[in-house]
Amino acid sequence: MDPRFQRALDFANYQNTFSTQKRVLKEKLSSKLIFGHSGGLFKIDNSLLTFVQMLVENGKIENVPILDKEGNPVMIENLSDFRDAIFTRYFDATNEFVSAYNDLKSKRSVEKLISA
Amino acid sequence: MNKGIIIFAQNSPKVDYALMAIVSGSLAKKNLGLPVSLITDTQTLKWLGTSGKKQLAEDVFDQIITIDKEEIFNERRLFDGDESEIIPFKNFNRSMAYDLSPYDKTLLIDSDYLVLSDKLNQYWDVDEDVLISQNCLDIYDDSRLGYLDKYVSDTGIHMYWATTVMFTKSDKAKIFFDYIDSIKENYASYSDIYRFHIKQYRNDISFSIAKHVIDGYITDQEYVLPPVLTVTDRDILHDVIDDKLVFLISDRSTADFFACSLSNTDIHIMNKQSIIRHADKLLEMANG
Q1: Nearest 5°: phi and psi at B287?
Q2: Is B106 within 8 Å of B5 (Cβ atoms)?
Q3: pLDDT averaged over every residue in chain B
Q4: ipTM of the assembly?
Q5: How far is A14 from chain B (nearest CA, A)?
Q6: Mutating which of B118, B244, B253, B262 best tests the A interface, going by the most A Cβ atoms within 10 A?
Q7: Which chain A residues contact residue B32 at CB under 8 A?
Q8: What pLDDT, in 10s, does the model give residues B146-196?
Q9: What are φ and ψ of residue B259, in 5° steps?
């Protein structure tokens, strides 16, 4: 077999594993950024984090209605606590993601990828 | 309100669903921190005794609830990697989940669904009486999913995945499960209306129709459980190493397999025999 073709096949195999591992990592991140609170479900993203931080900085702390990811209103009793909870969740999830992702990117063989 | 998990398991001559339920139940109990009950038939219970797994089952499960043995089998071709055979299976009792569950709030999972994270704990307090997974997410990519994995038929409604269902004992949930029972009894008529093949009874279809009707004939995805991350039955659970599951994923374009692994992520493993082959290691993981 042409060695160039063999190398291409080997790389395709590596790339398949890499892409699937990355897809699993993204799914894991996505599920960790779903936050259930007071009957609603929130997707922790830049928009929610910024909006909640802005409200807290403007003194809106107690009994603040926030729309959840489905657009339903959820009354948050203490927005400061809510802010802390979503920030903690966000950084836990994204720090884990960046660490796992960088680890994955550094692996140069299928064997190392699946043990990452 | 007490919360818990239920798993149905009725053995067929080819598949030890009871053992799969012990594996699945052990992992769910560990990772969600909640009691798990088994719903099984008398024959399967007897097999647990014969196979020496009864004590293990009693240790894992909060309650073992016995139902009558179903006399009717479904059949389907089930792959184990490249190999396949026609497998009989029983899945007609799922509509009894509401009445049989000992919990006020229940998570119903399939015995081939392995809970490896606590993500489903986010959904217990959601303001909705019945939550179902909105779709299936193939571990490889969506190209391996067919139209009939997303819709009940070519012209039909959205397909929800009854692999994971969460419900609260309430009037609405009772109506929902009673209606599923009615769909099951009149499955042929519903196949005419919703234009799906009647070759085998599928809980996913019954649950999808019930949700569609009870939501007011609309596809309401307001609150749903997360997508069911799935490895197909053409994929193989190759090994379990510490907290990692290593899979061989079937690449249909090359008719070959490639490797991947995951940890701390819930996974639906459709290749049942590969769960059974690694039952001991999966149980070690649950007890680790």
Answers
A1: -95, -5
A2: yes
A3: 92
A4: 0.86
A5: 8
A6: B262
A7: none
A8: 888 889 888 889 999 999 999 999 999 999 999 999 999 999 999 999 999
A9: -95, 150
